[in-house]
Amino acid sequence: MVRTGRQFFIFIVTLFLLSPLQAQRILPYPQGELTAEQIVEQVYAVTHGHLVRNSASKKNKKDIAMVVSRAPEDRRRPGRRPVVNTFETYGNSNPVNSDIDAMQMAIIRSGKAKGTGVLYISYADKSKSGMMTLWLPSLRKARRMNEPAHEDTWVGTNLTYGELVLRRPEHEHHELMPDAVFNDCLLAMQLNDWEVNRYTKKLPGPQCGHQGKEVYVVKSTTKFKEWWYDYHISEIDKTTFALYRTVYYKNDEKIKTVEVDWQSLEQEDPRVVYPRYIYALTHTNGMDSMIYVPRSTVVLNQSLPDSFWSERTLRKYGKR
Fold first, then answer.
1. Which residue of 15, 38, 141, 261 pairs with 276 in a disulfide if CB–CB is 3.0 to 4.6 A?
2. What is the three-class DSSP state of 197?
3. How far apart are CA 287 and CA 14, in angstroms?
4. Three-state secondary-structure class, residue 171
């Protein structure tokens, strides 16, 4: 149970939305020609929620956010359905205490870990490790633990902690390649009839709505030695800086593709978007994972006191 909670935290913070910058540190909308490093900085701000004060994903009638993970192709068979977890999240991007960068809270709403709550506090001083509190309803106890390693995979999926939240621009070398036009449909999880249940039947199909959009293309090479990938190539919307597709390579062989259907949150800044779904496919074995967040569950700029992000709230929500 403890391990499940740790892993679930990483998914939560990538969605809504770890380490948002305080208002005075928000990156301005860029002008003119950009370097690869400047583009990647914008992508980091967008994907980590630096452009909103706070955000949440809450169950709305029958709509709720979920993550679906599926075994490699050679291990799939009738009777073995994908693993599904549903969740709610609450993020505070503008705490009163200036020493705190952000406070994030998540509650698992289904599965064996139902009621498990996670509170994560990150600090303005990046040399200071964040603090994570995990509420375990089965034990009626709260525990604290450290951040995971970059290469660890999350909750049985094919996504790593580094991909979802821990990797920063300075961890890679970035090279700007020729601009392009995004002419593909984003992939989505294609289920067999026997894999469908009341949750997975709501998963969206491939997204073709981004076709025709101009994108930056950036090659990023890892600085870590003997890493699981050598480099990845990313396609990035030139207006919103939304990262649509990342393809990872090892020894020049394609090993994994991650695609994200970023959608507008109807704010003045076009960069304020959210990931309607994230789909990851491992090419070596066919394993795939999908995260789906219905738009009806997403809310911004709620009026909640900082005290809401507390162990007391974890306990309260863990009783559901």
1. 261
2. coil
3. 21
4. helix
Residue type, 312: R
List the CATH code of the domain at 2-317: 2.50.20.10
Close Cβ partners of 147 (under 8 Å, ≥ 6 residues apart):
129, 130, 132, 161, 166
pLDDT bucket at 125, cuts 50 / 70 / 90: confident
Query: What does the block give as tokens for 206?
Result: 């491939």
> Running DSSP on this structure, what letter comes out for residue 126?
T
pTM for the whole thing? 0.85
Cis peptide leading into residue 300 (ω within 30°): no
pLDDT tens digits, one per residue of 13-69: 344 333 333 333 467 899 999 999 999 999 988 887 777 778 889 999 999 999 999
User: Does 2 have pLDDT greater than 50?
Assistant: no
Peptide bond into 17 cis (omega under 30): yes
Hey, where are the domains in the chain? Answer: 2-317
269: which 2 tokens? 């800044």
pLDDT value at residue 25: 47
Asked if residues 82 and 70 have their Cβ atoms less than 8 Å apart, the reply is yes
What's at 14, amino acid-wise?
A: T
